[in-house]
Structures are given as structure tokens and as C-alpha cells.
Amino acid sequence: GVEVGPQPQGVARADVLDKMRKIVKHGLDFIQLFNEGKEFPPCTIEVFKIMEKVDYPRNKNGEIIAIIHPKLQDQDWQPLKNGDPLFLTLDGEVIPYQGNCTVYPTFINEAAYYEKKQAFVKTEKIKLTAKHLRSSVS
């Protein structure tokens, strides 16, 4: 599967559709070249590994008491450091990120995840290295 976003539920955006088409085309091109016996050299790429899902701050009744801070909104995949604004209470109090490492939040304030009690997902940036790749079929 391929998921490209973020975008609101039920909305078809031309720019996101174009990105999805390009990703699928690259995938199909890779499969064709692999099947033709092309050898791919070793490579290293950066990826984001899911660490944990983070819920909104809630009161003892389970009600949300803070929203995503405006400085975090629409900042998917951008570094979030200790002390950066994370949530904003309805009283205007800033709740900062408290962590011992830089993380990369994604799915920030996605409507589809409210019912799942998920304000965003914390990810870490890691590097993956692949050895050369070639089809063994002649």
C-alpha cells in the first residue's frame, strides 16, 4: 500500500494525487528493471521509525484539555526538541515537549485519529543500508 498525505478525510487534492502517481510509477519502474536483471548498487537512505503514539492531555474524565500548539501544527516530519511547544491548553498555557532526544512527529492533529486517542506519532530518524541487489533469474 501507498499512503501519501497528510490531507483531510474525504478530500481529493491534485498535488497529493500527483505525488502518489509518481511514487507508484517509481515502484513499477524498479520492478521492471529488477525483472530485466539490472543490478542496483548499495545505498543508504534515511527513514522514520515509529517510536510511540502520543495522546492529547486529558482530565480525569478522559476529556481533551489541550490542543496541538500552533507552532507544531502542519510540521509533520520536522524535528521536535526538548522544550519546543507541543500543546496549548484552553487557558493558554503552553505544554512543552519533554524528551531526552529529538523526535520527528507525524500524523499531527489528524481528524481520523481523534477517536484513537492519538494527537501525533513520535518517530526517530534512522539510516538503513542496503547491499547491492540483482535478480537471480537469468
Oligomer: single chain
Radius of gyration: 20 Å
Could you give the order of the helices and strands? HEEEEEE
Overall mean pLDDT: 91
Q: DSSP strand (E) fraction?
A: 25-35%
Termini separation: 29 Å
Look at the structure and give the CATH class of the largest domain.
Mainly Beta
Q: Please, could you describe this protein's structure?
A:
GO terms for molecular function: hydrolase activity, acting on carbon-nitrogen (but not peptide) bonds, in linear amides. This is ACY2 Aspartoacylase. Pfam families: AstE_AspA_hybrid. This protein has about 140 residues and is of the alpha+beta class. The protein has two domains: about 1-40; about 40-130, Single Sheet (N-terminal domain of TfIIb). Helix content is about 15%, strand content about 25%. The chain has one helix and six strands. The strands form two sheets. Strands 1-6-5 form a three-stranded antiparallel beta sheet, with no helix packed on it. A three-stranded antiparallel beta sheet has the order 2-3-4, with no helix packed on it. A hairpin with a 4-residue loop joins β3 (about 85-90) and β4 (about 95). The model has no long low-confidence stretch (mean pLDDT about 90).
